[in-house]
Amino acid sequence: MLDQSCVLEVLNKYGNGVITGGAHSRKEMPAEGETCEMCIMELQSLARFVCTGESLEWGDSPVGTDVIGSVLRALNDAGWSSDEKRTDALLPLAGFTDSDCADGWIPRYVEQTVRQILPIALRYYGLEEEVRRCTNAADAADAADAAARAARAADAADAADAADATLTLSCRLLLEAVKG
Question: Most-buried pick from 97, 143, 144, 165 (CB within 10 A)?
């Protein structure tokens, strides 16, 4: 895993101190003294080069991040209210590659997402029975069943937001899961 202080130094030096969402037009790493917008995965590409000398292709799919990268890209491009909130939540995850993640992190992340994040949205719609099912899920299979039931109930209730709190919690849960 990359040293967090080095990742932050790279973000401040090359990314104006913030992780940004969406696609970026830049096709190569910034040169010394240049700054640019970058997503979480572009930050990781650059930080791995600067902090370790590892030569990677610039982009949002650094080698060794197939699994964790897909989750981080989704969180990065979600509807944050500001780049600062996105940065605060995602920065602790910028140094993780698939091999850095603790064994079993995916089921832990999924279970905790169903138990902690889904109820936020469900309460918004007054779906207390689904909240109970999600928060009391015994294991990953039970969580999957509760999530499926909740999705059907929420679909019927019409969706809205609670974006930053939900996305920040998702990032915290992911960080806890990958650390083990």
Answer: 143
